[in-house]
Amino acid sequence: MAKFFWLIPLLVSFSVVFVGCDERGRQPGMGNGNSKSIHKLERMNAAMRDSDLENAVRAKLETNPQLKSADLSVNADAVRNEVTLSGTVRTHAARKKAIELAKSAKTGVAVNDKIDVKPGRH
After folding, report:
1. Is residue 26 domain-resident?
2. Is residue 121 part of a domain?
3. How far from each other are the two terminal CA atoms of the chain, in whole angstroms?
4. Position 114 pLDDT exceeds 90
5. Number of separate domains in the chain
6. Burial of 32 (C-beta count, 10 Å sphere; 0-12/13-18/19+)
7. Burial class (CB in 10 A: 0-12, 13-18, 19+), 83
8. Which helix (H) or strand (E) holds 103?
9. Could you tell me the CATH number of the domain that includes residue 108?
10. What is the pLDDT of residues 49-89, one digit of tens each?
């Protein structure tokens, strides 16, 4: 029987390893239904950031009287740091000013210009 005393520490160490492996699978959000909630929360946060960027651009556009009355839409993707401006303005200068103001709303923001210039529309 004295020959097998060395097996006891070996068996104890194996049991610790196996328990540790079992605990790894129980991390928060892993396979317990929380991952859907986490993804939903991430989408909500992204949408909130998008609306923050859109509001910042709209606020900049509102500072210009000519653009304040223009028919412009702002669509933002904060994750990509992009803003799309669409709609109609009366002059090319107004279009250029809208793009300039949108770029000044946040450092490094890319502006996709989909603005039409139609002098007689307004």
Report:
1. no
2. yes
3. 100
4. yes
5. 1
6. exposed
7. buried
8. helix 92-104
9. 3.30.1340.30
10. 889 999 999 999 999 998 988 889 999 998 899 999 999 99
CA distance 55 to 3: 77
**Distant-in-sequence, close-in-space partners of 118: CB < 8 Å, separation ≥ 6:** 88, 89, 90
- Confirm whether 101 is domain-assigned: yes
Res. 38: pLDDT tops 50: yes
pLDDT, greater one: 36 or 111? 111
Report the C-alpha gap between 110 and 43 in whole angstroms.
21
Residue keyed to tokens 């709303």: 105
Give me the residue label for tokens 């950031």.
49
Contact between 47 and 36 (Cβ < 8 Å): no
Question: Which residue range forms the structural domain that includes residue 47?
Answer: 42-122
Question: Over pLDDT 70: what percentage of the chain?
Answer: 63
Instruction: Determine, yes or no, domain membership for 107.
Output: yes
Report pLDDT digits (tens) over 93-107.
999 999 999 999 988
